[in-house]
Amino acid sequence: MVGSVKQDVEVDGRRLRLSNLDKVLYPATGFTKGDALAYFAAVASALVPLAAGRPATRKRWPDGVGTATDPAKPFFVKNLEAGAPDWVRRGTIEHRSGANTYPVVDDLATLTWLVQLATLEVHVPQWRFGPDGSPAHPDRMVLDLDPGEGAGLAECAEVARLLRPVLEGMGLDAVPVTSGSKGLHLFARLDGGWSSDQVTDVAHELARSLEADHPDLVVSDMKKAQRHGKVLLDWSQNRAAKTTLVPYSLRGTLEPHASAPRRWEELDEPGFAQLTPDEVVGRLERDGDLAAALAPADARGDALTRYRSMRDAARTPEPVPAARPAKGDDDVFVIQEHHASRLHWDLRFERDGVLVSWALPKGVPRPGERNHLAVHTEDHPLEYATFAGDIPEGEYGGGHVDIWDSGTYTAEKFRPDEVIATMRGGAGGGLGGEPVRIALIRTDRREREEPGTPIQGEQWLIHRMAPADDATPEEETRQQQAQKKEPEHELRPMLATAGAPLDPDAEYGVEMKWDGVRAIARVEDGRVVLTSRNDLDLTPTYPELQALADHVHAGSAVLDGEIVAEDARGRPSFSRLQQRMGLTKPRDVEAARRAVAVRYLLFDVLAVDGRDVRRATWHDRRDLLERLVEPGDGVDVPPVVATAEGDDQRAAVDDAMAISRRLGLEGVVLKRADGPYRAGRSGDWVKRKHERQQEVVVGGWRPGHGRREGGVGSLLLGVHEGGRLRYVGRVGTGFSDRDLDAIAAALHPLERKTPALEDVPRADAGDAHWVTPTLVGEVRFAEWTDDGRLRQASWRGLRPDKRAADVVREP
């Protein structure tokens, strides 16, 4: 019988009876109450600290959210439900109409009890109850970006990007959080020095200022009549009486989605969208809690649990405190020289009552020296800042420890993936008594053992920066770039020009053109980081390519190549590769990996052991590459198929094209033998293809008919020419059902009322749905017409590895 499933469970030592576990709460997908309970249990380690200490207002859907034709209305509940367990923490607020007693979600047991009552949304204010039970000053600010009709999530992301530098200028590090519905929230941690009224006034002024600067995009007035095509910057949720959905909560939308913190770079990605519960859980398992900085330290429990589990106080002289000390001033640092099984240095910063720690195998870089590896380790107690001595052999970290330098530090940034700090050590310390400014940048994206905790061995980079007072604007720009990538190497790949003329007096090497995804590989300390043409991190998508590290005969290298998937006849198949593209959740990646294997075909080298070789000729770089990389385990260096020079140039190219056609490949690339490696498109590399292909920007879609009724029938396409996004035709063939599902999902959050494409004929625009032009695809076609349209275009696939701004017409 539907709704009959019951289960007695123990949660955090509390006994609970869960009922109606098979009751469907989201009819569109069959998502049940049991699914909701499982989701909240999976995210509780991140959600509870963000809700703890705050009165929780709930939205309950006892009969589910309903359907599009018959949506259900929720119960909006403030007062604690009758019959609530006596162990549920309570908080009372005096309103004009009387007092309300609220539950406080301080643990998983309380959260589970609320979800058992069909609570899908948990809303809390930006303040917590103080010691006397009254509202304290807010400890965070929130800006709610709510798209009006004709705007969407893409416009919200644009507003968020405008707000970020303003908030940083105020000393606030904002965390973007997709709301799970239509919009985006920006949260920023506060120090508790402002009242709710003061925070509200600041947020209101910020909204009015942005509206004045961007009147076509932003509105700060709540009236819906003024919001068409714009984003409401809702500042009012900072009022003491207002609440905001807590990050990681479900939403009562027709299909299940959840609020989720996002990385800033995601806001620039094509197809940026709201996330499903499974996606949120997968991200939390893989990346940890991206909103951890928003939760007060005392809401996150004891950060020294891992430290204690690795040490026995009876066996080691290291400090092993039974309780975590009170928070200090966050200004102490220490660097310890540690003669363990391998000599290394331990860098530790006081933060929220512990020493956040990294192991530095090569120490702190000297001025002008390249980045060093930094390995994130467990938090240490504050007492460790003065520890020196011998850890017994056989104990964790056994060996001699000396204090190399110690003192105070100031932090410009202290985020889960980036730290910028200036250290001031002692006169006789290893830093030489001068202020030393460093940046720590997380590069590791592996799945974590526990959400919100570092992996043992999680990899970062440490970069030596110029002191803030000495850095010129140019130096600051260079250092900001260095925080994201190796300082010596700009990772933009060199691109070939279609159909460019060859220099008849030059020699060219001829290589096959591979139909895949371009990827730059950084290899260092046994780790491979893969980056796409548009700076997407491809590392989690192709975990098997970590094998590259075992095939490079150097300590470090920066390499260029193409990731391909092969069909049954061993030919690169772009359609097969699409089954791997864009996946990051470990479970999805592993399933796709079993079905579709990939190879990494290398054709250039940018650096070896920190030495930049991009100025060397292609001929010399090619020779170096063949000596540097040993093929195997899906890694290969395909041969140069011909040399084209002098009178034999044309014949060599024709022969290579014939070989390429016979092998079923895409064409060839001719590379000038005496040319250097230049980022961006260059005439030194020339591509010749058997069929014409064109990257395109999707600017809209038209509804389908027949089998495609109710879905996407064709896409309206554009390319950039002379600063305009010009319409070049539509494509309605070449789609698989999987393609159409993926495209529809990607287009939905990009909807807008007006076209971004220019010169769209009335016949094509009549029933068109317009979207913000960020999605990139690729088509094959017969020719360009006289009026600049694609003739006989056929869809090849989405290109998440390409930027919309880079899409131009190719000859």
UniProtKB/TrEMBL annotation:
Its cofactor is Mn(2+). Gene3D superfamilies: 3.30.1490.70, DNA ligase/mRNA capping enzyme (3.30.470.30), DNA primase, PRIM domain (3.90.920.10), Nucleic acid-binding proteins (2.40.50.140). Residues 591-721 form the ATP-dependent DNA ligase family profile domain. The keyword Thylakoid does not apply. Keywords: ATP-binding, DNA damage, DNA recombination, DNA repair, DNA-binding, DNA-directed DNA polymerase, Exonuclease, Hydrolase, Ligase, Manganese, Metal-binding, Multifunctional enzyme, Nuclease, Nucleotide-binding, Nucleotidyltransferase, Transferase. Its EC number is 6.5.1.1. It catalyses: ATP + (deoxyribonucleotide)n-3'-hydroxyl + 5'-phospho-(deoxyribonucleotide)m = (deoxyribonucleotide)n+m + AMP + diphosphate. CDD domains: Adenylation_DNA_ligase_LigD_LigC, MtLigD_Pol_like, OBF_DNA_ligase_LigD. It comes from the Bacteria. InterPro entries: DNA_ligase_ATP-dep_C (IPR012309), DNA_ligase_ATP-dep_cent (IPR012310), LigD_ligase_dom (IPR014146), LigD_PE_domain (IPR014144), LigD_pol_dom (IPR014145), MtLigD_Pol-like (IPR033649), NA-bd_OB-fold (IPR012340), NHEJ_LigD (IPR052171). GO terms for molecular function: DNA ligase (ATP) activity. Residues 475-492 have a biased composition (Basic and acidic residues). Residues 469-492 are annotated as: Disordered. In the N-terminal section; belongs to the LigD polymerase family. This is DNA ligase (ATP).
